Amino acid sequence: MGKKVKKETEPLSKDVFDPLPIESKKAATVVLLLSSPEEEVLAKACEAIHKFAEKGDENRSSLLGLGAVEPLSRLISHEDRQVRRNAFMALGVMAANSDVKRLLKKLDVIPSIIGKLSPEEDVLVHEFATLCLASLSVNFSCKVQISEQEGLAPLLQLLSSPDPDVQKNSLECIFHLVQDLQSRVAVRDLNGVPVLLELLRSEFPIIQQLALRTLAMVTMDRGAQVTFKEEQGFDRLLEVLRNREFCDLHGEALRVFSNCLEDGDSLQPIREAGGLQTLLRFVSTPARSDVQTQAARLVCRVAQSSENCRRLLHEQDIEKSLLDLLSVEGDGVGVAACLAIAAVGLNLASKDAFRNLGGMSTGPTRAHTHACTPKHTDLTLPSYVPGGVRVLVQLLDSEGGEVRPAAAQALFTLTQGSQLNADAVCEAEGVESLVRQLCDLFPGAAAHAAAVLTNMAEQEVLRGCILSHGAMAALLEPLRSADVHTLVRATQLVSVLACDAVGRADLRNAGGLAPLVKLLRSNHKDVRRNACWAISVCANDELNAIEMCNLGALDLLQEINCSVNRRSTFSETAHQRLLNSNLSLKYSLTNTLAFNDITADGFYDPGQARAGQRVLTLEDLSKQPVHQRRPVIAINAKPHDTVSVDQSEERQQDSPAETHITSVLSSKGASRTPSRGKSKGWNEDEKRMEEDEGKPRLDVTLATGRPWLPYDAAFHALVNEATKNILPLLEEREQYSALARLVSEAMGGPVAEDRQHDFPWELHLGELRQELQSNVVPIGRIHKGTYYHRALLYKVLADRIGVSCSLVRGEYDRAWNEVLVCVGMPQFPTCQPQPRTHLVDLIHQPGRLLRANTPQAIRYQTI
């Protein structure tokens, strides 16, 4: 910095300071000048800072450290136009620095900047004010402040500015703002769509690019889509797409197109104008990967809109073009193509087209010789070479994480309702890849794989193939997933695979019952519902049912069914299926055993359970100390070291532990006929149960005894007597009455109604409990029994000799048996006798049959 002395000949004024030209090489000196009161000095200082800041981000950081931001933020509101303009130039360039942005946000300069966007301001002010806002609008809180200060309206007005830099900066700021839904709606309301469309004809590519990117965000709003169509937006986009010089704009133009074709109504007029061929050209013609990606997304969006659109796409042979995209390098194109196939494949004709692109096979199909095909079936698969399906199956093993779930999603659509496509997936060796993908941790991979396998498993031959690849074991991880969609799909697959007895055994052996029962606690309705249905299907096997009961499934289902909001037909079905597998719990919880509920050794009556009370097992009850409450009545006509099992079951035992489980299972009792739910495996289970009924049973000696289930020799003798004397009777009525008299004799004989208080049955049970030193009393040891003892004995004896009856528990120690007796109608002698429900009197007049709902029957039930 130096001084120039004026010549002595010039006149000097006492009031005016001589001009002082300054040359400074230090930024700090210039920053100090920002506090000068002289407008000329301020203007030159701002201009110097602008030039210095343009040289790089390091200079901007240096100016920030010297304190230049605060005075510049004040000078943008200076009265002098030149000072104000130069201050905006300096601040606009400096705002590109991240630290400067944070400080400007703290200084709250946005209102001042927006205030200078008025039309009367200098163009340079507009340029650098919008540049500053474009830099600040990246920050969310700054975007909110710009919107609150109504900055969007002046920014839209500046899009019509003759200066391209003002247009570019304004567009960039608007693009940042419309990332939020509220700003998109505001752009539509402020009539910004026509202005944006007009900018597509700009001579500057960056402005065109920003206009398309902004339109892509704005047209996500339905109202903006309507305005876009009214302003002939499709014609403007087709101009861009048909111009090969605008190849860098085609991707964004296709994106805007896909947004505005969401309703499907616009496709037909575009097709009539020849625009559909223009759009699909980007799918079939090699182009930049981003353009092909957007083209595939456009096809996906159009196909999702309506069946009519899918039909139009099929008429354009879109299937072959999409399959060609699967061979393009880059995961983005592959993912978009798979998703487009998933959408187009909803059309039945397209399903066939994707399968038939490869033609017919000339040799035997893999399904005929595949090692996983069940040996017991003669089913064969059609001889197709699955061209499109095979390509998708190969993508299941792709290294790209996003490609695998996308390919599975496409296969899910193609196999949905198409047996031929499901066969094609198996033929292309897709089962192994899909089962492996069940353990894929990439989001959505396991869910989509499970969905495909669910479609395939509807066929018995494919279900066996899937199970042979260890699908049940692979489902353990999906069943433990935290993702709701994965849980829904996994439980659906369990339900279908469990239709086979092999599948139910695989799930149990793999430890899958525990996570399945745990899903009953889910707060998501679909997960809980699917888990209930899977449990009801798995409960067709008694081993599964008992293990699920031990895992607390009955308690959870009972809790669900007590809830008005959570209860459903699925939870009620699952609860009933589990109860049918354990009649002791069923009787305790429901107080009823139906005609087809057949008791067996190991059945016990723990008494009526209160709501929410857990029913203990017989083993747990036997370990309790002797108490004065009601004793537990146990049924067992076999010594504790033997048990009846089916020969088929005995052949399946692989270890003593398995033998023990099966023996306990067979003693629990089961329903005579399976519950008729929606399971596809019901027919198979019913057939298997009918076949097992005719097989001989044998005694198997167990490695460990069951001291908690005492052998009841007296009951065994009653069974033999009933078999010998009652079973030969020809008339059902005679059998009912004779059995009632046998029960009465065993339980102390008849008791008159007015002498019931003298019948010492309670004392007798107390003596038995003390004699046995146990709360568990064998039913045959009871020689003085009241209503519920006699009704229970009648039921278990009737089940042993094949006499059909039910057991119902009432109040105040009452219980009774119901039987069906065919009764003719005298007034219509030619009519077939109809079965009528009768109660069996076991205590007052043993053998008497009381017509249900008559005064005598009601008296027997209550008095």
Description:
- This protein has about 850 residues and is mostly helical.
- Helices cover about 55% and strands about 5% of the residues.
- It has a 5-stranded antiparallel β-sheet with strand order 1-9-10-11-12, with helices on both faces. The chain has a 3-stranded mixed β-sheet with strand order 3-4-8. A two-stranded antiparallel sheet has the order 2-6.
- A hairpin with an 8-residue loop joins strand 11 and strand 12 (about 850).
- Helix 2 (about 40-55) runs parallel beside helix 5, helix 4 packs across helix 5 (about 80-95) and helix 29 crosses helix 30 (about 445-455).
- The longest helix is centred in the middle third of the chain and has 17 residues, at about 290-305.
- The N and C termini lie far apart (about 120 Å).
- Mean pLDDT is about 80; it is low at about 1-10, about 360-385 and about 640-705.
